[in-house]
Amino acid sequence: MPISNSQTIQFLRRGEVVTLNNVPPTRTLLEVLREDLGCTGTKEGCGEGDCGACTVVLGETKGEQLTFKAVNSCIRMAHSVHGLALWTVEDLSPVNAISQHPAQEAMVQCHASQCGFCTPGFVMSLFGMYQNHVLQGETITRERAQTELSGNLCRCTGYRPILEAAQQMASLPTVRLDHPAITRQLAQIQPQTPDVDSPYSAYQMPSTLVELLTARATQPRAQLVAGCTDVGLWVTKLHKQFDTVIDVSRVAELRRIEQHAGSLVIGAAATLQDAFTALLQSWPELNTFAARFAGLPVRNSGTLGGNVANGSPIGDSMPLLIALKSRLVLASVRGEREMPLEDFYTGYRQNLLAADEVLAFIKVPLPASPSQTSLLRAYKISKRYDDDISAVCLVLNLTLQSGVVSDISIGAGGVAATPVRALQTEAALRGHPWTAANLQAAMQTLRAEFEPISDMRASSGYRRQVLGNLLQRFWLESQGEQHINLEALKLEALT
Ligand SMILES: Cc1cc2nc3c(=O)[nH]c(=O)nc-3n(C[C@H](O)[C@H](O)[C@H](O)COP(=O)(O)OP(=O)(O)OC[C@H]3O[C@@H](n4cnc5c(N)ncnc54)[C@H](O)[C@@H]3O)c2cc1C
Ligand code: FES
Ligand code: FES
Fold first, then answer.
1. Is the distance from the beta carbon of residue 154 to the nearest atom of ligand 3 less than 6 Å?
2. Residue 28 Cα to ligand 2 middle (Å)
3. How remote is the CA of residue 116 from the centroid of ligand 2, in Å?
4. Which numbered atom of ligand 3 lies nearest the CA of 116?
């Protein structure tokens, strides 16, 4: 049995502070909503972040601003909403109101619901879009609607009317929240102070790096969590329980993203959405790759540090970060140490973190100067285009000088027990002319460099084949469409 928690959870809902006591550390927000608070409007579908039926919106003050994020309540621990404002589908219009919120009204007008099971989740994602875009005067294009709703699944209506509803919201009478009142009320909720000596502080949410490192040093066996988009599934699907949880997601230093000494320094607890937004400023070509990492509710909770620390061989950010030559900073009360990302992993889901250490920062070197001869491409091969995990991921970062490869770094996922750097293929290309013939040789090297396994996502042979094909695609893209001569390429390959 999980132990209870002496710490109180407080969050804001419908203009009132909700207070909960004795909530076990691994009780999910969805369980609290449906079972403890009787809010059954929020649905449970998959229980693993995949379908979006459980979507709720969280509000948080950041300086003067109130930010809004749609998240999956099924894999989010209830304690993690302490100090935040929460909206469920029941909260969008005043009790007994005749009028509905534009997110609801647009769904009705566009006939965007049939059985209705997915509808509360879609409405909450739409509510997040309404707050973040419609009220900011931004247009919701069909593409934006598709990207931001890709974490919500509907099995009967079809997506066209739902996407139309997203676009329709702006034409309906405006509904605004009272931001100053919400901010004032949120300020009255005290942060949970970690009491590392108490056996009952079962869910700890340190707010500074010093607090985090002290808690980690004192309780090296506690389960570290960030956005819980991996760990949440260990709870809901593997039925794991943790006596003590240390949540890094409120540590101010780890949420920052700053430029320092030629690098983008991304705090490990920066959400995937924030981290990708920062990366896109230097590499806009990553737009599609970023949008295909899970769905928005997962990117709003999950962190870049969680992806790296979790160390899944099919994690998507690591091949990218390896190709960008990123370095990790690990921290403990003993100090900090730094290493290239690819050196962090020691085996399948194993890494160099000591028991008292946390992953603190990811340092991504910024491009020295915009150069027309640099090319970065990130390819993700998955069974489903949206909201799916990679079978193979390949990221290539090439610099050419006078047609010769002056530098290349290649990160790969799904082809070994850990995310990897393709050092042999890099060596085969570096210093050589960027020609179709050299490319063909490098394709063979890349196919032979790793020993991928066969699993439910893909066979070993498929993965090897795809690796080489992606390198070929990269070469073709590097030529520009007008220069692609497939016949010449085939001839060169044969010679
Ligand atoms: C529906 C769905 C879709 C997904 N799609 C993708 C996808 O497309 N691509 C992909 O790569 N992943 C995907 N994931 C996996 C997951 O979202 C990512 O791995 C995410 O980045 C994990 O971050 P988190 O903050 O939620 O980590 P958590 O679940 O909180 O933690 C994961 C692990 O990292 C450790 N950890 C977290 N922070 C730190 C830290 N600062 N220091 C040390 N250890 C730490 C935890 O102890 C735990 O072992 C998906 C998950 C879901 C549920
Ligand atoms: S129930 Fe499916 S995402 Fe939460
Ligand atoms: S309306 Fe039935 S699942 Fe979407």
1. yes
2. 12
3. 15
4. 1
* Substitution candidate for ligand 3 out of 115, 123, 124, 149 with most atoms within 8 A of CB: 115
Distance, CA of 478 to CA of 294 (rounded, Å): 28
Classify 276 as helix, strand or coil. helix
% residues pLDDT > 90 (the chain)? 85
Q: How far is CA 489 from CA 96, 303, 437, in A?
A: 69, 42, 8
Q: Which residue has the tokens 């599934």?
A: 233
- Rounded Cα distance, 94 and 324, in Å: 49
- CA 140 to ligand 2 centroid distance, Å: 24
Query: Which one, of 122, 150, 50, 162, lies nearest residue 386 by Cα?
Result: 150
Is 0.90 topped by the overall pTM?
yes
Residue 313 CA: which ligand is closest?
1
Helix (H) or strand (E) holding 166: helix 159-168
Query: For residue 324, what are the contacts with CB-CB under 8 A and spacing of at least 6?
Result: 364, 365, 376, 397, 409
Atom of ligand 2 nearest to the CA of 54: 4
Q: Report the helix count and the strand count for the chain, using DSSP H and E.
A: 18, 19
pLDDT tens column, 6-38:
578 999 999 999 999 989 999 999 999 999 999
Helix axes 102-109, 119-132, angle to 10 degrees: 120
Spatial strand order in the sheet of 358-365: 257-260, 263-267, 358-365, 327-332, 335-340
Q: How far is the CA of 185 from the centre of ligand 1 (A)?
A: 31
- The Å distance, Cα 123 to ligand 3 centre, comes to 12
Query: What does the buried/exposed string (b/e) look like for 421-433 if buried means 16 or more CB atoms within 10 Å of the residue's CB?
Result: bbeebbebbeebe
> What strand order describes the sheet that includes 55-62?
16-20, 9-13, 85-87, 55-62, 65-72
Output phi, psi for 311, to 5 deg: 70, 25
Which of 28, 33, 40, 54 for mutating ligand 2's site (highest number of atoms within 8 Å of CB)?
A: 54
The per-residue pLDDT for range 234-243, each reduced to its tens digit, is 999 999 999 9
Mutate which of 155, 159, 160 for ligand 3 pocket (most atoms within 8 A of beta carbon): 155
How many of the other CB atoms lie within 10 Å of CB of 35? 12
pLDDT at 492 over 50: no
Tell me the CA–centroid distance for residue 154 and ligand 3, in Å: 5
Q: How many CB atoms neighbour CB 90 within 10 A?
A: 17
CA 125 to CA 151: how far, in whole Å? 9
Q: Residue 375: which H helix or E strand, with range?
A: strand 374-381
